[in-house]
Amino acid sequence: MALINLEYYSETLGMNRNVKVIYPEASKVDALTETDIPVLYLLHGMSGNENSWLIRSGIERLVRHTNLAIVMPATELGFYVNTTYGMNYFEATAHELPKVIHNFFPNLSNKREKNFIAGLSMGGYGAYRIGLGTEQFSYVASLSGVLTFEGMQERFDENAAFWGGLFGSWEQFKGSPNEILTLAESFTGKRPKLYAWCGEQDELFPGNEFVASRLKKLGYDLTYETAPGTHEWYYWSQKIESILQWLPIDYVQEERLS
């Protein structure tokens, strides 16, 4: 397995962008002939960057027995959307980044059924925003994701510079493509399979319960799980393994020491 630090110039953002890539073990893929390697785009949260999953989750160890490639981009505090201040993080992550990655790693699959996206907190929102805002990903997963902003209007009002810079006013945000349930209701293509987990003591838990209920009523294939837990890496580092088990890959669970 190789860990690759990729820095490239993003035409969309007008700046250099950092991405970490985990490339599968040579014993799991034929680097010369295989052109169908599955890939998971793994998104960080508000306080993170391209290194967060590597440092905090043990993702390298977890995927070393698979043929899965992992792509971990940095998006600062951009929420993976095309912001009102002109930084088009959605376009850069959803459309430009896969093209860049395939240019550097042509062995990675272009097939929708072998492209997946997941994230935590802000990255959980980003995974659903991209997964339901395109038809590029067949499996979409969120851990403690900001899947709804219902009940959070005060945050828009109290910090209008930040939230308004991302989404515009509350009135502009409601009913826009940046609202997950609006996307889910208007999605007309082949629906991705969805996964969501949230800790029951997390302040985002009520919102996850609300969105999960609505998604199921809309007929989405959603695996929704909860357990005691807060908004912490202690839980995300465990639940990323549940996502790997849920994905259509050959995943070998390591034995844990008792």
Kindly describe this structure.
This protein is α/β, with parallel strands linked by helices and 258 residues long. The protein has a single domain (2-246), classed as Alpha/Beta hydrolase fold, catalytic domain (Rossmann fold, 3-Layer(aba) Sandwich). Helix content is 34%, strand content 20%. The chain is built from 10 helices and 8 strands. The chain has helices spanning 52-57, 59-63, 89-104, 122-131, 153-158, 160-167, 170-173, 180-186, 205-217, 233-246, and strands spanning 2-10, 15-23, 39-43, 69-73, 115-120, 139-143, 193-199, 222-227. The protein has an 8-stranded mixed β-sheet with strand order 1-2-4-3-5-6-7-8, with helices on both faces. Strand 7 (193-199), helix 9 and strand 8 (222-227) form a beta-alpha-beta unit. The two termini are 27 Å apart.
